[in-house]
Amino acid sequence: LTDEYAVEVEFAKKWAEAIGQSLHYAEVTGKKPAIVLIADKNDSRHLDRLMKVANKYQIKVWVIEK
Protein backbone atom coordinates (compact mmCIF):
# COMPACT_ATOMS: atom_id res chain seq x y z
CA LEU A 1 0.00 0.00 0.00
CA THR A 2 1.01 3.56 -0.65
CA ASP A 3 -0.75 6.72 0.48
CA GLU A 4 -2.73 6.70 -2.78
CA TYR A 5 -2.65 3.17 -4.22
CA ALA A 6 -3.35 -0.47 -3.36
CA VAL A 7 -0.67 -2.21 -5.43
CA GLU A 8 -0.44 -5.77 -6.74
CA VAL A 9 2.99 -6.94 -7.94
CA GLU A 10 2.95 -9.77 -10.47
CA PHE A 11 4.81 -11.35 -13.37
CA ALA A 12 3.51 -10.56 -16.86
CA LYS A 13 2.11 -14.03 -17.55
CA LYS A 14 -0.27 -13.53 -14.60
CA TRP A 15 -1.58 -10.18 -15.86
CA ALA A 16 -5.25 -11.20 -15.49
CA GLU A 17 -4.83 -12.27 -11.88
CA ALA A 18 -3.10 -8.95 -11.16
CA ILE A 19 -6.18 -7.07 -12.37
CA GLY A 20 -8.50 -8.95 -10.04
CA GLN A 21 -6.20 -8.61 -7.07
CA SER A 22 -5.61 -4.89 -7.58
CA LEU A 23 -9.33 -4.19 -7.85
CA HIS A 24 -10.02 -6.28 -4.76
CA TYR A 25 -7.30 -4.55 -2.73
CA ALA A 26 -8.62 -1.16 -3.83
CA GLU A 27 -12.15 -2.08 -2.76
CA VAL A 28 -11.01 -3.31 0.65
CA THR A 29 -8.71 -0.36 1.38
CA GLY A 30 -10.54 2.52 -0.30
CA LYS A 31 -7.42 3.33 -2.32
CA LYS A 32 -6.91 3.45 -6.11
CA PRO A 33 -5.98 0.17 -7.85
CA ALA A 34 -2.46 -0.25 -9.20
CA ILE A 35 -0.24 -2.97 -10.67
CA VAL A 36 3.52 -3.35 -10.84
CA LEU A 37 4.08 -5.75 -13.74
CA ILE A 38 7.41 -7.59 -13.90
CA ALA A 39 8.09 -8.18 -17.59
CA ASP A 40 10.77 -8.73 -20.19
CA LYS A 41 10.84 -7.76 -23.86
CA ASN A 42 8.99 -10.94 -24.86
CA ASP A 43 5.96 -10.05 -22.72
CA SER A 44 4.45 -7.35 -24.94
CA ARG A 45 1.35 -9.47 -25.64
CA HIS A 46 0.61 -9.68 -21.91
CA LEU A 47 1.26 -5.98 -21.39
CA ASP A 48 -1.05 -5.05 -24.29
CA ARG A 49 -3.87 -7.12 -22.82
CA LEU A 50 -3.33 -5.69 -19.35
CA MET A 51 -3.31 -2.11 -20.58
CA LYS A 52 -6.58 -2.51 -22.47
CA VAL A 53 -8.36 -3.49 -19.22
CA ALA A 54 -6.33 -1.13 -17.00
CA ASN A 55 -7.31 1.86 -19.12
CA LYS A 56 -10.99 0.91 -18.96
CA TYR A 57 -10.98 0.49 -15.16
CA GLN A 58 -8.48 3.25 -14.34
CA ILE A 59 -5.83 0.93 -12.91
CA LYS A 60 -2.41 2.58 -12.63
CA VAL A 61 0.33 0.39 -14.14
CA TRP A 62 4.08 0.47 -13.68
CA VAL A 63 6.37 -1.95 -15.52
CA ILE A 64 9.64 -3.31 -14.18
CA GLU A 65 11.84 -4.91 -16.82
CA LYS A 66 13.66 -8.03 -15.72
End-to-end separation in angstroms reads 22 Å
Number of helix segments?
2
Major β-sheet strand ordering: 1-2-3
The strand count comes to 3
Query: What is the percentage of strand-forming residues?
Result: 25-35%
- The overall average pLDDT, rounded, is 97
* Class per helix and strand makeup: alpha/beta
Describe the structure.
The protein has about 70 residues and is of the alpha/beta class. The chain is about 45% helix and about 30% strand. The chain is built from 2 helices and 3 strands. Strands 1-2-3 form a 3-stranded parallel beta sheet. Helix 2 links the parallel strand 2 (about 30-40) and strand 3. The chain is globular and about 35 Å long.
